[in-house]
């Protein structure tokens, strides 16, 4: 991929964040998501590429835009796989809570995992220091002890981030009994996994079962950051769990381990995200009458470069179609 494309992808996540942020705290997560989807798709159409959605809003019959298999881009340029989450944390936007992001990952054709049969993914993620010591096959206690040794810390110094779900009751208890601290989150496990690999983050490791699409996006980011992630897919099988919240913790153990190269192959992966609401990773969108401010991050695995992009958007100078997408009124 041409390196100039990285900035084009930031423009895509910026548009999604601007559109969704207008609806922050309004209590309608579906409306916020649809606004981001429309803005993201429109901006993708200006990018010189031949893209195909591998991770999107759902199958074609269920999602009017950004469905799995949809073609994106201006129709020329490199052939690319696309993973998108126009609003990572729709509930966070609806309630005005921290850490909502507009997120995408891009890789050459054939490099991003598509798992239409998967409903959830059991995941473990950490930064470069823990890359050679953690494993999803080990217990939470053993992973924490090994990571603490690698980081030259006491286990009590570690912070594990886990989705606050009934299915994680035993995991949370084990982490606490091992002596580590626990950061529970209501949504947004892409941001959580990325935080585990960032050097200045307060998070050391991410654990637990979350969405499979989010797993692919997180793996793309961790590949750029030099971290590690492993996962196991939980196929859609009603016999495996009673409900979304009561997953059989052991149901995944017969599934193969997915490494980062299974989730995001190759050495040319790009990850981009723009903050919608304020969070530990990125600042949220700020609006004035004519100007909107965004903060984004773009990473590239080929060079290991991580750039933070602060942008001021003169909404009065944007095309009318863009103004409509982001809710600008003269």
TrEMBL record:
Substrate binds at residues 88-90, 120, 165-167, 187-189, 211. GO terms for cellular component: cytosol. Its cofactor is Mn(2+). Signal peptide: none annotated. GO terms for molecular function: fructose 1,6-bisphosphate 1-phosphatase activity; metal ion binding. It holds the Pfam family FBPase_glpX. GO terms for biological process: fructose 1,6-bisphosphate metabolic process; gluconeogenesis; glycerol metabolic process. It catalyses: beta-D-fructose 1,6-bisphosphate + H2O = beta-D-fructose 6-phosphate + phosphate. InterPro entries: FBPase_class-2/SBPase. It comes from the Bacteria. Pathway: Carbohydrate biosynthesis. Mn(2+) 2 binds at residues 85, 88, 214. Keywords: Carbohydrate metabolism, Hydrolase, Manganese, Metal-binding. Mn(2+) 1 binds at residues 33, 57. Belongs to the FBPase class 2 family. This is Fructose-1,6-bisphosphatase. The gene is glpX.
């Amino acid at each position: 991929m041409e390196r100039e494309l990285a900035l084009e992808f930031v423009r895509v996540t910026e548009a999604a964040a601007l559109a969704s942020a207008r609806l922050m705290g309004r209590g309608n997560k579906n409306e916020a998501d649809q606004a981001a989807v429309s803005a993201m798709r429109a901006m993708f159409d200006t990018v010189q590429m031949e893209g195909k959605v591998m991770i999107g809003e759902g199958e074609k019959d269920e999602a009017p835009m950004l469905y799995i298999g949809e073609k994106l881009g201006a129709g020329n340029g490199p052939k690319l796989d696309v993973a998108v989450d126009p609003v990572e944390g729709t509930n966070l936007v609806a309630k005005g809570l921290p850490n909502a992001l507009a997120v995408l990952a891009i890789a050459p054709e054939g490099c991003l995992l598509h798992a239409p049969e998967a409903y959830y993914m059991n995941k473990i993620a950490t930064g470069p220091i823990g890359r050679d010591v953690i494993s999803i096959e080990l217990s939470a206690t053993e992973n924490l002890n090994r990571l603490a040794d690698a980081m030259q810390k006491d286990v009590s110094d570690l912070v594990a981030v886990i989705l606050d779900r009934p299915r994680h009751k035993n995991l949370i208890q084990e982490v606490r009994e091992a002596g580590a601290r626990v950061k529970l989150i209501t949504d947004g496990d892409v941001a959580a996994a990325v935080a585990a690999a960032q050097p200045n983050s307060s998070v050391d490791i991410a654990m637990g079962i979350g969405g499979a699409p989010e797993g692919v996006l997180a793996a793309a980011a961790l590949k750029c950051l030099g971290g590690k992630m492993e996962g196991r897919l939980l196929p859609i099988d009603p016999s495996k769990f009673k409900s979304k919240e009561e997953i059989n913790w052991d149901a995944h153990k017969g599934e193969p381990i997915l490494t980062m190269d299974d989730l995001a192959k190759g050495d040319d992966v790009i990850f981009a995200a723009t903050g919608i609401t304020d969070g530990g990773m990125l600042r949220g969108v700020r609006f004035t009458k004519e100007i909107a401010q965004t903060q984004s991050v773009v990473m590239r695995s080929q060079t290991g470069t991580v750039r933070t992009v602060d942008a001021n958007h003169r909404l009065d100078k944007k095309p009318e179609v863009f103004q409509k997408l982001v809710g600008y009124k003269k």
